[in-house]
Design brief:
The complex is a heterotrimer of chains A (about 375), B (about 70) and C (about 250). With about 375 residues, chain A is α/β, with parallel strands linked by helices. Chain A has helices at about 10-20, 35-45, 55-70, 80-95, 120-125, 145-160, 170-175, 215-235, 255-270, 290-295, 310-320, 340-370, and strands at about 5-10, 25, 50-55, 75-80, 100-105, 135-140, 165-170, 175-180, 205-210, 240, 250, 275-280, 280-285, 300-305, 325-330. Chains in contact: A-C, B-C.
Chain lengths: ~375, ~70, ~250
């Protein structure tokens, strides 16, 4: 590791991508991720790569499709409204089994919304986003250093599984400056694997397509994709646990709100509340088993998100209604203050205690009946 | 003396080769191909010069010419 | 016996799904012939559009990539930038290129991408049932202009080659009619020049083919060819529209 540099999340992500061997970046300006495009415009030619400011997000994602089909590590980035436009291309990339990295530095929505941080594209990212039955790996960094590390990781995952990988950050992460240590420059060759389109010299012609007219064949292709997604789900789940061993109140948060929640959990511990934090790092695949396990141990789960309740649905599915799940969210660009999270945690803990007592006394009453 | 071979399974009987032929060597066959179409048929090796115009207009690349 | 004409190596020996008399077959064939003549089969990649030619990958005997509707030039751009020594051909119909993909084609042309566009203009959407395209003639009846195209409602047919010729990045733009043998031979020369321009790394090249759709024009193949000559050519003049390296 080199010495630390102070960098904004957007610029750090761009540099990390280049160091991971990304040699094609196609982007269209949109706030709050413009620094990525500007950084790539300057840095990509130095690295001997391709930078194009595309005419639209549609063009950008399809340039990624073409560059990836030709064997190059390729990336595009945008923010919420722009990511909606990219969904067409992402669906094709998933169907054609091409590697691609797409960064979404989320802003307030719906519609044009605003340029303040948000997490309201969670559904779009983890449930597929575009048409058809596909998945993409979704990574949710919470610090600039983690953004760097996960950017490098995203290219490896995309190549390994030949599927789109989404880096799901929020505007806060993109804009904030933090000290980071950059990985060394990796030399990654243009791929010559058996699916890459390079001209049929000395081999049979190849085809990359998503149109499979025969229902039986398309069904088989879908089953093949699902099998791959199961493999990813079994192998690639990542999360961070803080104080969960003996926790009664589990907070679940990702991205920058998880930083506030981490501090709030520590503060609640000092107040005698046995609180813990689960921070999903992969949002798809979701750390379902870990949350399911904790649902048997804890008496309450609190989900904190910069949206009006998206990841909470995955938490509910994971907890299988074995434990009450509360939600604390806001959207539109508002961020969390530690005091309000602590208050919410205290209230949740209180509610949970009262409920437990009631349940206990009910049980006792029931028992005392002859 | 030229010889025109028509792959009747590729030919869909559009008749454009008949239009293109300056010598009237081609016609639509009364027989069928597997798809139930009447393909083109080359009948006259005496008149055919092997000019290749039929192959130039054929949308189905069904024609080969030898001389 | 001497071979006067045989199927080019770049075209697979299979029956196409195109209707009888469809122009796509001729364009496929002459493209395959040129690829053979230039000896570039092993470095050619065609980007197939959405539309009737989406299945072109079943017919060309070289690498083929599919693209979302209209995005063919963007996919071609990404591919060419990664592998500049490959020959990248964007094969597009009129709906794909001039309606949904207008932004992509204009900007690829303006950037002077070193790609060659094969533009097949039959004045309607064949695959979806003969709806109006940007190139549908005034008065032409289609599934979505049952009374004929009215320019006050639907605008004028878009002349793609003339439009793209305005950009400096466009080195060569030409239009030919897929009618008799003479015009087809002319069109083949145009396409060969367009591909030579890409091989010489000079810039963007496009050849537009006025092409028959007997099925949706509700004409016989022979009548469809006459229709091109009588109705389409007056609207879309054939010939070389731009050539900066004469």
């Amino acid at each position: 590791m080199t010495e630390k540099r102070l960098m904004s999340g957007n610029e750090a992500m761009a540099e990390a991508a280049i160091r991971a061997g990304c040699r094609c970046y196609f982007g269209y300006p949109i706030t709050p991720q413009n620094e990525v495009t500007a950084y790539m415009a300057r840095r990509m030619p130095e690295a001997g790569g391709v930078f194009i400011q595309s005419e639209s997000e549609l063009a950008a994602i399809n340039m990624v499709l073409g560059a990836s089909a030709a064997g190059c590590r390729s990336m595009t980035s945008s923010s919420s409204p722009g990511i909606s436009l990219k969904q067409e291309g992402i669906s094709y990339i998933a169907a054609m089994e091409l590697p691609a990295v797409i960064a979404n530095i989320m802003r307030g929505g719906p519609g044009l919304g605003n340029i303040a941080p948000s997490q309201s594209d969670y559904f779009q990212a983890v449930k597929g986003g575009g048409h058809g039955d596909y998945r993409q790996i979704v990574l949710g960094p919470s610090t600039v250093q983690e953004l760097v590390d996960l950017t490098v990781c995203s290219f490896d995952l995309a190549d390994e599984y030949r599927m789109p990988v989404v880096i799901l950050g929020d505007g806060l992460l993109g804009q904030m400056m933090e000290p980071v240590s950059m990985p060394g420059m990796r030399h990654v060759e243009i791929k010559e694997e058996e699916w890459v389109l390079s001209g049929c010299r000395g081999r049979a012609p190849r085809l990359l397509r998503s149109l499979i007219l025969d229902p039986g064949d398309l069904a088989a292709h879908n089953l093949h994709l699902q099998e791959k997604y199961r493999r990813v789900a079994a192998r690639e789940v990542r999360f961070e646990s803080v104080f969960t061993d003996d926790a009664e109140l589990i907070v679940v948060a990702y991205g920058t709100p998880a930083r506030v929640c981490r501090a709030a959990v520590a503060a609640c511990r000092e107040k005698g509340i046995r609180a813990g934090l689960i921070r999903p790092i992969t949002l798809w695949p979701f750390p379902r088993e870990e949350i399911s396990r904790l649902a048997s141990q804890a008496s309450h789960i609190l989900v904190v998100e910069m949206s009006h309740g998206q990841m909470v649905e995955d938490v509910l599915l994971s907890a299988e209604f074995r434990v009450p799940v509360s939600f604390f969210g806001k959207a539109g660009g508002l961020t969390f203050h530690i005091d309000e999270v602590i208050r919410k945690m205290e209230k949740t803990n209180q509610k949970s205690k009262i409920k437990n007592q009631k349940a206990k006394s009910k049980k006792q009453k029931h028992k005392s009946k002859p | 003396m030229a010889r025109v071979e028509i792959n009747i399974e590729l030919c869909k009987g559009c008749g454009l080769c008949i239009e293109a032929c300056p010598k009237g060597c081609l016609k639509i066959s009364s027989g069928f191909n597997r798809m139930g179409e009447h393909p083109a048929e080359w009948g006259s090796d005496e008149m055919c010069t092997g000019c290749g115009l039929c192959a130039v207009v054929c949308p189905d690349c069904a024609i080969s010419i030898y001389k | 016996m001497e071979i006067i004409y045989e199927r080019p190596e770049s075209l697979k020996d299979v029956r196409t799904h195109y209707c009888a008399g469809c122009g796509h077959g001729v364009v496929h064939r002459i493209l395959a012939e040129i690829v053979d003549e230039l000896g570039i089969r092993e470095k050619t990649v065609v980007i197939a559009p959405v539309g009737c030619a989406v299945l072109a990958y079943d017919y060309f005997n070289f690498d083929v990539c599919e693209a979302p509707h209209g995005r063919t030039p963007a996919v071609a751009t990404g591919m060419k930038r990664v592998r500049p020594s490959n020959v990248i051909i964007s094969y597009q119909g009129d709906g794909d290129l001039a309606a949904i993909g207008m932004a992509e084609i204009i900007h690829a042309a303006n950037r002077g991408e070193r790609i060659t566009v094969v533009f097949v203009n039959n004045g309607l959407y064949g695959m979806t049932g003969g709806q109006m395209a940007p190139t549908t003639l005034i008065g032409q009846r289609t599934a979505t202009t049952p009374m004929g195209r009215d320019f006050r409602e639907c605008g004028q047919p878009i002349k793609v080659c003339e439009l793209l010729s305005q950009f400096e990045g466009v080195v060569y733009a030409a239009r030919c009619a897929i009618t008799g043998p003479g015009n087809i031979i002319k069109g083949k020369k145009m396409l060969k020049k367009a591909l030579s321009i890409q091989l010489a790394d000079l810039g963007f090249s496009i050849v537009e083919f006025l092409s028959a759709c007997p099925t949706h024009w509700k004409l016989t193949p022979r009548e469809a060819v006459q229709y091109i000559e009588e109705k389409m050519v007056p609207c879309f003049p054939t010939g070389v529209i731009k050539d900066t390296i004469k």
